[in-house]
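Q: What does the predicted 3D structure of SnoaL-like protein look like?
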Amino acid sequence: MKYWGLIFGLLLPFASFAESAEALSTAAISARIQLVNDAQNNMMLSGSTVADVDALFAFFSNDFVYVHEVYGGTYPREHLYHNSINNLQAGRYKLTEPRYQILQILPGLNAAAVQRREQRSGKIHLTLFEFKDDKISKIVEYWQ
C-alpha cells in the first residue's frame, strides 16, 4: 500500500503539467497560420532581409521540423534556417508578389490542414501545421 502512495506522489506533478497545456482555439490557429503565411511570403519577396527570415522563424518552436518527402525529406529548424539565409544571400528570393494565397484552413487539435494556391503556377498545395503551445512545431507538405 505504501508503494501506491509513492507512485501517485511521483506521478501527480506530471498529471497536473499535462493538464496545463491547453489546446489552441480555432481562431488562434487560423490567425497564426495567416501570420506565418504572410511571413513566408515576405521572406521570398525581392528585397527581403535577414530580419524577414528571423520574423518567420520566430513562429517556430526550437524543435521545429519541416517535412516534404517529395523534396528531400525532413529538415530540422537549424538546417532550414541556414538554407533560408543562404538563399537570401544568393539572391534567390526575388518574387515580386506573394507566393501563397490561403484558400482554406481546417483547424483541429493543435493542428491545421491548409490549402494554399501558389500564385504563379495556380497549383494547390496541401500543408499540415502542428503546434506546441503557441509555436509551430512541424510543417508537413503534401504536394509535388
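A (community wiki): The C-alpha cells above were generated from the sequence. The longest helix spans residues 2-20. The chain has one domain: 25-141.
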